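Collaborator request, handled under Task 6.
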Amino acid sequence: MKNLIKKILREQVEEDLGGVPQVEDNAMRRIRVVLDLMKRYGKKWDGYLDGIAKTKKEPYGYEGMKYILNNLLKIVGGGKDSQYGGDFDKTYWFSKVFQINGGENRNFKEGEIQLIELPQYEMEANYSEEATDYRTGWGSVVGVTSEDEAVELFTDDFGSYLEDSESNDMDYGDDYDIEDVAVVTVEWIRFDPKWVGL
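Structure tokens returned to the collaborator:
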């Protein structure tokens, strides 16, 4: 039943767009359909892009945007092969194209659509960070006359009495010493025809 509905929707989309054109034209027509469907979520795309503008990375709290886009892409035959890492590229690209081409106030079935390439800088740096290792240590104290004296000696000169230890937990700080920061590669987020089922 699901496949029949998808087939009918696809046929309707193709009929609305004047039949099945060549691959390049077909991709553009499918992009137009997806952009038009995105209008229902106009303010959400703005919020998603604002989050990217603030954090300069995939924004926290907008995981649902990838799900929304994949569902819209399924209508034109895409969104099936969701891959780890690829969903961000796809969602970022479509939301940016949606925004720069007029957003929710645009009729995407008419006029030219500006397709873009978005730079993505793959970074590398050497760094060190403070870490606290919570451990339990054991050692022996001899030649003392009381438990209090043993505790005091063990506390005051712990390192010399420590014979064995075991790590219980680690806690990392928020401060980093960073050196040798470099851009490893610049990749471009471009439209991939697979996103729309081609």
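The cover message to the collaborator said: "The first helix runs from residue 2 to 16. Confidence is low (pLDDT under 50) at residues 16-23. Please let us know whether this matches your experimental observations."
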